[in-house]
Amino acid sequence: MHSVVLALGIARVLGGFADVGRDWREIEAKWPFLGWLSLLLALQLGWWFGLWARFSTMNEIGLSTFLVWFLVPASFYAASRLLIPEFPEGSPPNLEQRFVEVRVPFYACLVVGVLPPLPGLPGAASAEWLLAAFGALAITGVLVANPRWHTVLLLLMLATFLTWLALARTTLGA
Fold it and tell me: What secondary structure does DSSP assign to 31-70, as a single string?
């Protein structure tokens, strides 16, 4: 079930990339939008990678663990749905205005996405502070409405996630 929801979110993000590619010339403020798409894709792929590594080494998974871990792909899917508007042919949406409209629930979804870390992943405990920093950045996105801050926030979140990924050193089992 986790993989299905992650696949839906990833498909939504990939569709967003395709929509921007189709309407490239007509879309304004596409660079921050492409950055958010890239971050969502990286978060979902990173979660799947960690989940695969964790689930492959477990003999059994309790229902409470399953449900808590399910919140993450569900929140990333919701963030994908919020961020990526419908792109009707011939009239692409205003992506900057769209982001302003969905900013609070979008960042809330990102906060939920980093709350329940994957306990037991190699290197995860040493990098939990980075997940907490990512969550704190997402909270500031809820609180601060300045569009320039959101561009800076995007870069900080990308850097934080990439640092966490480098420190986690997670590998897939055979």
Answer: HHHHHHHHHHHHHHHHHHHHHHHHHTT-S---HHHHHHHH
User: With left for phi above 0 and alpha for psi between -120 and 50, is residue 61 left, alpha or beta?
Assistant: beta
Spatial contact of 160 and 134, defined as CB atoms under 8 Å apart: yes
What whole-number distance in Å separates Cα of residue 108 and Cα of residue 162? Answer: 20
pLDDT tens-digit series, residues 119-141 = 544 444 555 777 788 889 999 99
Q: Please, are residues 110 and 138 in contact by the beta-carbon 8 Å criterion?
A: yes
Unique residue bearing structure tokens 């870069």: 155
**C-alpha to C-alpha distance for 96 and 46, rounded to whole angstroms:** 26
CB 76 within 8 A of CB 35: no
Element (H, E) at 126: none
